[in-house]
Amino acid sequence: MSYGAGFQEDWEKLLSGHELDGVLAPPSLEDGHFPAHGSFHGDYYRDDDNVTRGVTLTDADLGMAPQPFGKDYAAMGLGMDFDGSLECMDKMGMYDLGLSPPGWGSSASQAPALDSKIGRFQETDIPPGIPQDSFFELEGTTLKASCRLPATLANGVVDFLTTEVVSSITKLCRKKFAIKADVFVKSVMCSIKARVYTLEGQYYALEFQRRSGDARAFKDIFRQVSEYLSVSYDLSGGLPEVRLDLGLPPLLPQSMPDTRQTPDLQPLIDMSASIDMSCLQAEAASALADVAQDKASAASLCTHDTFAQLCKLLQADTFEILYPTARLFAALAELPEADHCFISSGVLPVIVSKLRSEESGDIARCQLAQGFKFVVSRCAPAMGSAAVKELLGIISDALHEMSTLPDKSISRDLSEAEFHLRAH
Fold this sequence. Notes:
With 424 residues, the chain is α+β, with helices and mostly antiparallel strands. It has helices at residues 5-15, 59-63, 71-78, 91-96, 150-163, 215-230, 266-272, 278-291, 295-299, 304-310, 319-333, 339-344, 347-356, 362-379, 385-401, 409-423; strands at 19-20, 23-24, 142-146, 166-173, 178-185, 188-198, 203-213, 234-235.
């Protein structure tokens, strides 16, 4: 094997004990052995290189970190000088950075329920400017608003989502002035993101994006939020018109009689049982919830086999499935024809189990609780003593578990159902 002239020259220097690039080679080296120290021409490791490497840490990793965090450990996550204490940050600020604040635990299920503890934008918060990237442009669904404090504009969006529509706010980031939410229009869900950008003067751009879900639902949501904000803010140029080419068929004239028969719902019922395909379950739950608003169509769902399939919708944990499912069962609860199905299918204990789970979401739980109360008040006389005793035990456990919750509406509905069961 032959080496280049540079290598041979460095090797001879090392064997003679000369300095090489600031490193003194050991004076005694066994012939034929490669030197343990030193560097050579053409060696790409010859220069000292203090490599700075990053590491990706999950919430679980950070949740198990010793408290208080060490300075170097915390600096990796926060990117700033850190004194080993988390007292300089509020909990929502830590949550935005992906850290698990003390007391919140490490799992997603132990994080605060964002729909009830979402927090609000503060007066000192300042939205970022529009990115200078040449490829960036605002969506057509952007409002230009004039206001003194941008926080009030962003909080206006939060107020709209919590009071005017059925929604679950999944994220609020004060630093980015961003809000993410899952919003329902009837039984159709659309995931949206709203961001505020600073413009010149006291003008701000409020951009809405459809991240997933139905385009028609997004159009309706944008129209509603525009009208809601226009009452309090000067929206420059008026309300924009969102033009979506939906390819919808023309509406039938009102004078034309409706000759449609009750639709065949079996494909939707089969889809509702697809527990391994949440997208199919969500589509089926939304369609069936709308169908059930018509009493004639809802009556066709009142069979034992159909209820056994629909019960599988209650196994889901996502808002996209549970809210339309709650609407579906609330509509069926109003039908006396469904009483025998509720009793024989075993769905009543399953509904109570969903009421005990905070992951089901407050909106879905409230609808399920109301439907449960209506059904039990009618069905209690027809239920056997063993079924009544079992259901009373389940309700008692649920009430005990929910006694510390601030929202008492679900507990009240369960207590009323318990009263009807004990009366018979």
